[in-house]
Amino acid sequence: MKSIHISAVLLAFLALGGQQMVYSQATLIEPVEFFEGSLSDPENDEISLHWDVANLTNDTLQLMVTRSIVQAVEPYNVPYTEGEPGGYDRFCWGPLCYPYGTVSSNTSPNFVVTIAPGGTDSTFICDYYPAGIAGVTALEYCFAPVTDFNAGVCHTVLFCLDAEDCALSTSDEEAFVSWGDISPQPVKGLSTLSYELKAGQSGNVSIFNAAGQEVWTKSVSQSHGLLYIDGNDFAEGLYFLTLHVNGGHPQTQKFIVQH
Prior knowledge:
The chain is mostly beta strands.
């Protein structure tokens, strides 16, 4: 079935007759939507999923991968600390399988994945380790050109272990926070992020660099307010801001710092 699907997509590409596509974006070949299993099965101690990434454009693509947590079991071992309880993850891309909890692949020329027009790369693997924690974890993977992060294509996969419903939570208890977008972007000086919590809630905001290292943290307890991000406090590059409120799942935004 997979080979038939790939052939159909490639035929559609050839049917363009060499016409220039509007944008240069990767195509994910049959990305896995979800995995369901039981913690009682020892084979589920490490869950590995794979899909191919194709270039159906007329341009050579040099791609990086980022991983964001959409929803996670509690506890979740991020940033990863060996021996600590909680589920955790990692991914492989190009020549490397990255350390547990890494949020972005290496963007140096030796580690980006280059795909020629009409080509396909088969190196992507996402691994999930439930570590004995039942529930649903949803991880989003984005494949983007290193020169244009906003031109990426993203896909969310659900890992469901002994879960009553293999789906994202939509209960009122989980809708704990609303927030805007980090603006302006890229962050060159001072940027802001608005947020609003339910009454009585508090949480922590953390910023991680592309290697998954926490480089900034702040507690929030007011029902609403603004967070200020000063680009002068960070080196140039890709960062991830995570808002983790008590009783709910972490939410993450990406931003780029330029000087």
